[in-house]
Amino acid sequence: MKDIKKYVEENKERFLGELIDLLKIPSISADSNYKDSMIKTAEAVKKNLLEAGCDSAEICETPGHPVVYGEKIIDKNLPTVLVYGHYDVQPPDPLDLWNSPPFEPVIKETEIHPEGAIYARGACDDKGQMFMHVKALEYMTKNNELPCNVKFMIEGEEEVGSEHLGWFIENNKEKLANDVILISDTGMIAKDTPSITTGLRGLSYVEVEVTGPNRDLHSGLYGGAVANPINILSKMIASLTDENNHITIPGFYDKVEELSKEERAKMAEAPYDEEAYKKKIDIDDVYGEAGYSTLERASIRPTLDVNGMWGGYIGEGAKTVLPSKAYAKISMRLVPNQDWKEITQLFKKHFESIAPEAVTVEVKPHHGGQGYVTPIDNIGYQAASKAYEASFGKTPIPQRSGGSIPIVSLFEKELKSKIILMGFGFDTDAIHSPNEHFGVWNYLKGIETIPWFYKYFTEMSKE
Ligand code: BES
Ligand code: MN
Ligand code: MN
After folding, report:
1. Measured in angstroms, how far is the CA atom of residue 118 from the centroid of ligand 3?
2. Ligand 2 mean position to 193 CA, how many Å?
3. 285 inside domain
4. What is the mean predicted confidence (pLDDT) over 61-72?
5. Which of 204, 295, 370, 405 best tests ligand 1's pocket when mutated (most atoms within 8 Å of CB)?
6. Could you report the per-residue pLDDT of 380-408, keeping only the tens digit for each?
7. Which residues does 355 contact at the CB level (< 8 Å), separation at least 6?
8. What percent of the chain has pLDDT over 90?
9. Residue 308 maps to which CATH number?
10. Do residues 14 and 136 both lie within one domain?
11. Could you tell me the residue range of the domain that residue 224 belongs to?
């Protein structure tokens, strides 16, 4: 494994070029106009898996976007690593805020990425991170360093809630059987501070619709006498959190896992600079639930956020109108033990109960998923920790993330294996935002670190 660094250095330009080719295909899972691009991307992933050394790879149809599956089985008695990732990306809007087109990747240097970063939708989330695994496999097969079996499951619906992946897993349990699941779809703290994600938040996503009068009305003739759905919706949303920024939905916190003093103290040891945090996103102050630090608010505490809100007149100039309808999309990030379906029901019941008689309210649940937290006393985590030590010369810090990968808890339940979240992105890489990017250094470091995981995991499995 000594020559992995050299291999990465020698093949750097090709590794970048191949990722750039993949990033050019607009695999937007949310938009049905991009169905062909989804298939084209799945085919490209399959081709890359075969070229990297998989014995077989296939495109598996689902009721939604296809899953790409590939494997290299060298010996049935050896352990099997299952790599999961996603080839779909978020829609790139708003397009005018991109400095270069989202599907025409360019490499640019930045303060955080002096070696350059690849700017494109999906660069970090998750094509770039998924592709690190393909290139790590290439290294291992070309250099006779693959110590165990490997399977790849790369899906195309993560960004829209992995609706059909549960179905796919249930129907392919034997095919997907493994000893550990390896995922790079999260982040790390900083270049000199590697970290492994040990927790993810769950999610409940709902849309609400408030209806007042049966048509838009003249806001002079009717204003003051008829409920304005946008005014009402604003009040209802405002009442969902109190002056301490606690969520007011009855029962919301009942199952929230409270961390011990010791666990919280351990979390506070992670390097974190609040001034730098504020500066990077141009805010004068942080804001959140009383009694918790910024790191805690964004990882171990549940949240409620409006993601979008609309209704009435939003065109140019002014139009005097009392709208008939108001809408909002609301997400709740959940923590371990909170059940997303139960929380969705609690939200629905509460939201309907606080609506005044003058309007009708409809709550439409979207997707969701359970949170996840994993202990670190298993060989998967320990092998990952040693892998970072080998490539970074430093022991990684276990870190709980605020993001969600809903399928992770399902993996644990259905496939009964541990999930290792080896992410190489930075929080500042603008995933889901305009100008998403992935550091060239991060990409190459990921490729360098992954083979060590295979080595240590295989060795530790024999012990
Ligand atoms: N890769 C992200 C999740 C993530 C990013 C976790 C960074 C931890 C650190 C994933 O693609 C994602 O965006 N998930 C969605 C949920 C999904 C149901 C759309 C999210 O977290 O909003
Ligand atoms: Mn992702
Ligand atoms: Mn994402």
Report:
1. 17
2. 21
3. no
4. 97
5. 405
6. 999 999 999 999 999 999 999 999 999 99
7. 210, 232, 236, 361
8. 96
9. 3.30.70.360
10. yes
11. 202-256+302-369
Tens digit of each residue's pLDDT (9 = 90 or more) over 276-300: 999 999 999 999 999 999 999 999 9
CA distances (Å), 71 to each of 66, 78, 83, in order? Answer: 17, 14, 10
Residue type, 276: A
> What pLDDT, on a 0 to 100 scale, did the predictor assign at position 191?
96
Bridge partners of 322? Answer: 217
Query: Looking at the domain assignment, is residue 410 inside a domain?
Result: yes
Task: Output the CA torsion 250→254→256→261 (10° steps).
Answer: 110
Q: Which ligand is nearest to the CA of 399?
A: 1
Residue nearest to atom 13 of ligand 1 (CA): 159
Closest CA to 154 of 43, 28, 254, 16: 43
Structure tokens at 255: 């199952």
How far, in Å, from the CA of 401 to the mean position of ligand 1? 10
Dist. CA 155 → ligand 1 center (Å): 14
CA 279-282-285 angle, to 5 degrees, is 80
Q: Of the residues 369, 399, 419, which one is the last residue of a structural domain?
A: 369
What residues pair up with 421 in beta bridges, in sequence order?
Answer: 183, 197
Count of positions (residues) in the chain: 463
Amino acid present at 158: E
| C-alpha 294 to ligand 1 mean position (Å) | 19
**Are residues 348 and 360 both part of a single domain?**
yes
CATH assignment at residue 26 = 3.40.630.10
**Ligand 1 residue neighbourhood (C-beta within 6 Å):** 125-126, 158-159, 161, 185-187, 200, 203, 367, 401, 403-406
